[in-house]
Amino acid sequence: MSSPAVPSVLFVCVHNAGRSQMAAAFLTHLGQGRVQVRSAGSAPADTVNPAVVEAMSEVGIDVSAETPKVLTVEAVQASDVVITMGCGDACPYFPGKRYLDWTLEDPAGQGVEAVRPIRQEIEQRVRCLLAELGVQAAA
């Protein structure tokens, strides 16, 4: 008897330095290996937003070693669910993939105080996504 396939999710935003990094970190943390997680950007920044690093560390998740990655066709093809966060037409479309667009404020250029509510909204959405995928979220 084979085990069920592990769902694969790709988070995409323009710079892959804020929203998509937070979403990927929450899904990795809460999914505990039961979901394959990727993130990428259509025009990746050089580093993850320092306010995002600080905001995530406040909830016990370290993203300081993460680096923004360029969006590739292969990453989209390898994912079951593609969640865009403001990348618009820069995200390639493939039939048979599930696409979601999460409209979230961009944390670029903002301090940690402005990032906290974005972080909280992303965490809520990730928890809902896990439920939709039939994956029990970690406590």
How would you explain this protein's 3D organization?
With 139 residues, the protein is α/β, with parallel strands linked by helices. It has one domain (8-130): Response regulator (Rossmann fold, 3-Layer(aba) Sandwich), CATH 3.40.50. Helix content is 35%, strand content 14%. It contains four helices and four strands, in the order βαβααββα. The protein has helices at residues 19-31, 50-57, 73-77, 112-133, and strands spanning 8-13, 36-41, 81-84, 98-101. The longest helix is centred in the last third of the chain and has 22 residues, at 112-133. The mean pLDDT is 91.
Judging from the principal axes of the Cα atoms, what is the shape? Answer: globular
Please report the total strand number as a whole number: 4
Q: Approximately how much helix is present in the residues?
A: 25-40%
- Backbone CA Rg: 14 Å
Q: Structural class of the secondary structure composition? A: alpha/beta
User: Mean pLDDT, as a whole number?
Assistant: 91
% residues in beta strands: 5-15%
Amino- and carboxy-terminal Cα gap: 29 Å
CATH superfamily: Response regulator
Layout of secondary structure:
Elements: E1 8-13, H1 19-31, E2 36-41, H2 50-57, H3 73-77, E3 81-84, E4 98-101, H4 112-133
Parallel strand pairs: 1-2, 1-3, 3-4
Helix pairs in contact: 1-4, 2-4
List keywords for this structure.
139 residues, 4 helices, Rossmann fold, alpha/beta, single chain, 35% helix, 4-stranded parallel sheet
